[in-house]
Specification:
- This protein has helices at about 20-25, 30-35, 190-195, 200-210, 300-305, 320-325, 325-330, 350-365, and strands at about 40-45, 55-60, 60-70, 75-80, 90-95, 100, 105, 115, 135, 135-140, 140-145, 170-175, 225-230, 235-240, 245-255, 260, 275-285, 285-295, 390-394.
- It has about 400 residues and is α+β, with helices and mostly antiparallel strands.
- The strands form four sheets. Strands 12, 13, 14, 15, 16, 17, 18 and 19 form an eight-stranded antiparallel beta sheet that branches. A four-stranded antiparallel beta sheet has the order 2-3-4-9, with no helix packed on it. Strands 5-6-7-8 form a four-stranded antiparallel beta sheet, with no helix packed on it.
- The protein starts with about 20 loop residues before the first helix and ends with a strand.
- The mean pLDDT is about 95.
- It has eight helices and 19 strands.
- The structure holds FE2/S2 (inorganic) cluster and fe (ii) ion.
């Protein structure tokens, strides 16, 4: 090789050691984001998931058991029995609570130990132990749990879009997968998915030119988008011209910390948003989605899933997934936790910049002992009204 030969630049060999933004993505107790997320209520199951069969639930890196006692009260307790640590998954639900399979300690929905059958006199010191538990509330077909500091427990918010019904509408909940299809549990970090909410530019690429128009033709064109922070999170306002010269105006919102307030991309109706999706971080490397929305027929939420040649995501071949990828492929394709040090943000990523900045601001507030955005401790707080929707303007 001659001395003057140009040096190869940009080869993989020159890459620096990758790094992730731990404070934004990790969700365990004691981490910055884990503590922020623990200031809010999160859906942990459908109402019917709490029943007489103990159900494993993993939330923010914690292994929990969901059940419903014989009096109809839903309970959420740590899976490890506070006696000697076996899992309450093998326990038995009774009238007053959940009984551990190993030595029969019985716990109520607040973790009180009611019986210790192996102990003299049923356990004289049973009041001294408590099975770790979390408060739950049931609303919109979902069970919400609060995993944070008890003295900072906010009210469970009420949402106008799930309270004010149109003709023949009712609220339904769904837990089956991300919108485009995929397994129930998505094997990557929750923020990868959540950032997708403020990324309307991927729609005409991923959901149109790659997948074949998964949504309506109106959604297949490149939008003009403005992003803004709101009192709740980040708002993206997209406009597109329609064939008849009108303006298709679409507003989506990321409502901190995990709400996707995204109107139906199939644009069945031009109206305010009809559903809310909650991104539930299971742990650092997996998440799932719960949705509640106004529907007219049972099962409508599930029917919104994209299909490819009439096939569900799970029925597609590997070849079809490769040639027609959707949200699952793009987001899981970023890796378990995307390497933030290797990103190159461009103009179209402005929504993500605002979102990350807003998260950083909330992390700082919590670290300073303040309350993060969107929490209320006043039970008379008015329902939250979103701007999100699909609208037509002349
Ligand atoms: S381990 Fe649960 S009662 Fe002993
Ligand atoms: Fe998408």
């Amino acid at each position: 090789m001659s001395k003057s030969a140009p040096r190869d630049e940009g080869t993989g060999y020159e890459m620096r050691k990758p790094a992730i933004k731990d404070d934004l993505v990790l969700v365990s107790r004691g981490t910055p984001m884990g503590e922020l997320l623990r200031r809010y209520w999160h859906p942990v199951g459908l109402i019917k998931d709490a029943n007489s069969v103990p159900r494993k639930v993993r939330v923010l890196g914690e292994d929990l058991i969901l059940f419903r006692d014989g009096d109809g009260r839903a309970g959420l307790v740590h899976a490890r029995c506070c006696h000697r640590g076996t899992t309450l998954y093998y326990g038995k639900v009774e009238q007053r609570g959940l009984r551990c399979c190993y030595h029969g300690w019985l716990f109520d929905v607040h973790g009180h130990c009611l019986e210790q059958p192996c102990e003299p006199n049923g356990g004289l010191f049973r009041n001294k132990v408590r099975q770790p538990w979390y408060p739950v509330q049931e609303r919109y077909g979902l069970i919400f749990a609060y995993l944070g500091p008890p003295d900072r427990k906010p009210i469970l918010p009420i949402y106008e879009c799930l309270e004010v019904m149109g003709d023949g509408e009712f609220v339904e909940a769904d837990d089956s997968s991300i919108g485009g299809g995929g397994p129930v549990i998505i094997p990557c970090n929750w923020l990868q998915h959540y950032e997708n909410v403020v990324d309307p530019f991927h729609v005409p690429v991923l959901h149109a030119s790659f997948s074949g128009a998964q949504f309506t033709l109106a959604m297949a064109s490149m939008p003009n988008v403005t992003f803004e922070s709101s009192p709740r999170g980040v708002v993206a306002r997209s406009t597109r011209k329609t064939d008849d010269g009108k303006t298709f105006y679409r507003v989506t919102e990321a409502v901190l910390p995990t709400l996707r307030v995204v109107p139906n991309p199939r644009v069945a109706q031009f109206a305010r948003v009809e559903s809310i999706g909650w991104v539930l971080p299971i742990d650092d490397a997996s998440f799932r989605i719960y949705v509640a929305g106004r529907v007219k027929e049972p099962g409508d939420l599930g029917r919104m899933r994209s299909k490819f040649n009439g096939k569900d995501w799970s029925q597609m071949t590997e070849d079809e997934h490769q040639r027609h990828p959707g949200d699952y492929e793009a987001q899981v394709g970023q890796g378990l936790i995307t390497m933030h040090s290797e990103e190159h943000f461009a103009q179209s990523d402005r929504g993500l910049v605002i979102l990350r900045w807003m998260f950083q601001e909330q992390l700082a507030r919590v670290a300073q002992g303040r309350d993060p955005i969107g929490v209320s401790f006043d039970a008379s707080t008015a329902p939250i009204v979103f701007e999100a929707g699909n609208y037509i303007r002349n």
